[in-house]
Q: What sequence folds into this?
């Protein structure tokens, strides 16, 4: 029953190289090539296109962090790897929603993936906590922290943006914010 | 040193903004003060996490931008056109559908069971005993009393009969000295049994043997008015008869003898019953117990019933079982010996009309009275 999805997927070794070089073009290429496969999987198993998008993006993130961590060995086709992650993620999601009927309608071959997702899940939990802490932090702290630590802006830029009288004041303010953020982060369960 | 100042220093250290001198001093501080060291590690981890979180956000942003470029609707259209909606419906709801279906089946079966539909279905085709319930039983009290009086009178005078028995069937002589055979179901629960011959003479009989398995009953005429019959014109066939043989019967589905003919259609009866033949003869209530004869005037069986809902399927107990049943009669129930003529019938060469003429005097209506 599986329909052949026509798409010009990049060669697997090129794709891996592109990921390592942080090539945005390659990311786009990969993303567009394999999305229909995942959409088909999710739609055929009680999901919507929004579910498919969520699952697929999560899988791409897993792939990227795996490749960049250096211990990625492509033992099968990249397509199979992505499909297997998505399948696994979607099964988990179905179970959480108790909509899993006991069997999944497959379109591709897949392989068991137990360990690849553990790291990812741990990180996800941390990121969720970080997001929660940042949201609780409130302004202007949140923006100062984001500008400095995430967007790598200089202290002088931040100082100008928030009209602090001098960079030292801004710095002190930043450290106060950071301390509060730490507190909030570690308080969260 | 306050926490904030410490943080400042740690950050400076981590970012490599310290001079070599400061660095060496801070390294010494770290060695000496475990608290400072752990604070540094914690800060390092935390800022890494923050950084990765930032990267993740950016990455997701990029992914979303790429996603915008995909025409999801078109893709969906292409993918969803099959499987068809009915398959999809089944996939989404198969547990519910299965549950509903099983409830429906249960409900239907339950309803059928409780309304007795199943029961009547299974009984639809059965064997109907052919003893006749006599209509006059339903006469008014007045009439009933009158006819009972008449019966009593007749019984005293001994010969002329009436037809107000409750049930009636057919029977025929198996010896010239007054032994009659009929079906056991004809004389079941009888208080008194009479037989009536073709001329209308009735005699009181006694049931001396009844075999409910072969459905055979042997009666003996006890009436003093009875005089011995002439030698029986027919013989009893020991061997099995074959399919296709022409057979005929005489019975009393009404007050006068009725002749019917047909053929032997199967060597087994209802549901493979080996005691009986299946014969294709139009029979009616009242025929029960009548003889089934072949062309040569041999008795091959006794009519015992017919299948409901099936035309032309009557059943006759095989003569071999009749002989068996007769042999099983305890000797002290009999006066003398009961010998069946199994040799040759005396009406073998006659025409059917002549055969019937001869036979008629040996076939009786069996009338059963009970309260």
A:
């Amino acid at each position: 029953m599986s329909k052949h999805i026509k798409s010009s997927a990049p060669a697997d070794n090129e794709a891996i190289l592109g990921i390592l070089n942080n090539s945005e073009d390659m990311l786009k290429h990969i993303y567009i090539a394999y999305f229909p496969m995942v959409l088909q999987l999710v739609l055929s198993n009680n999901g919507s296109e929004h579910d498919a998008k969520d699952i697929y993006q999560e899988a791409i993130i897993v792939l990227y962090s795996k490749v960049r961590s250096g211990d990625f060995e492509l033992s099968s086709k990249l397509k199979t790897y992505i499909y297997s992650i998505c399948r696994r993620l979607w099964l988990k999601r179905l179970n959480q929603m108790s909509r899993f009927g006991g069997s999944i309608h497959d379109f591709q071959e897949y392989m068991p993936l137990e360990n690849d997702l553990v790291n990812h899940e741990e990180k996800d939990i941390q990121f969720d906590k970080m997001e929660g802490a940042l949201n609780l932090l409130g302004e202007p702290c949140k923006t100062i922290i984001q500008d400095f630590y995430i967007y790598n802006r200089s202290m002088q830029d931040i100082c100008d943006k928030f009209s602090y009288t001098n960079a030292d004041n801004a710095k002190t303010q930043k450290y106060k914010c950071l301390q509060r953020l730490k507190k909030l982060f570690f308080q969260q369960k | 040193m306050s926490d904030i100042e410490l943080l400042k220093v740690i950050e400076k250290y981590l970012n490599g903004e310290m001079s070599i001198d400061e660095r060496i001093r801070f390294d010494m501080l770290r060695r000496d003060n475990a608290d400072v060291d752990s604070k540094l590690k914690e800060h390092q981890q935390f800022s890494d996490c923050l950084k990765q979180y930032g990267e993740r956000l950016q990455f997701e942003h990029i992914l979303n931008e790429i996603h915008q470029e995909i025409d999801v609707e078109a893709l969906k259209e292409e993918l969803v056109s099959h499987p068809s909606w009915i398959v999809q419906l089944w996939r989404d709801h198969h547990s519910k559908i299965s549950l509903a279906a099983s409830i429906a089946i249960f409900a239907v079966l339950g309803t059928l069971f409780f309304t007795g539909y199943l029961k009547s279905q299974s009984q639809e085709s059965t064997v109907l005993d052919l003893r006749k319930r006599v209509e006059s039983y339903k006469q008014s009290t007045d009439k009933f009393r009158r006819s009972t009086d008449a019966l009593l009178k007749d019984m005293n005078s001994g010969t002329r009969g009436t037809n107000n028995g409750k049930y009636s069937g057919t029977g025929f002589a198996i010896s010239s000295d007054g032994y009659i055979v009929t079906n056991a179901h004809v004389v079941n629960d009888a208080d008194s049994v009479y037989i009536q011959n073709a001329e209308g003479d009735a005699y009181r009989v006694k049931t001396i043997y009844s075999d409910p398995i072969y459905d055979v009953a042997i009666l003996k005429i006890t009436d003093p008015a009875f005089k011995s019959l002439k030698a029986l014109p027919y013989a009893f066939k020991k061997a099995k008869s074959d399919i296709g043989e022409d057979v005929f019967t005489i019975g009393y589905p009404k007050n006068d003898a009725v002749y019917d003919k047909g053929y032997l259609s199967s060597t087994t009866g209802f549901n493979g019953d080996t005691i009986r033949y299946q014969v294709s003869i139009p029979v009616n209530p009242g025929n029960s117990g009548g003889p089934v004869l072949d062309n040569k005037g041999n008795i091959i069986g006794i009519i015992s019933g017919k299948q409901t809902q099936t035309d032309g399927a009557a059943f006759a107990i095989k003569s071999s079982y009749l002989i068996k049943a007769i042999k099983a009669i305890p000797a002290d129930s009999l006066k003398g010996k009961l010998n069946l003529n199994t040799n040759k019938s005396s009406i073998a060469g006659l025409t059917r009309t002549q055969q019937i003429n001869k036979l008629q005097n040996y076939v009786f209506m069996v009338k059963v009275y009970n309260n």
User: Anything to note?
Assistant: Chain A has two domains: 12-113, 117-187.
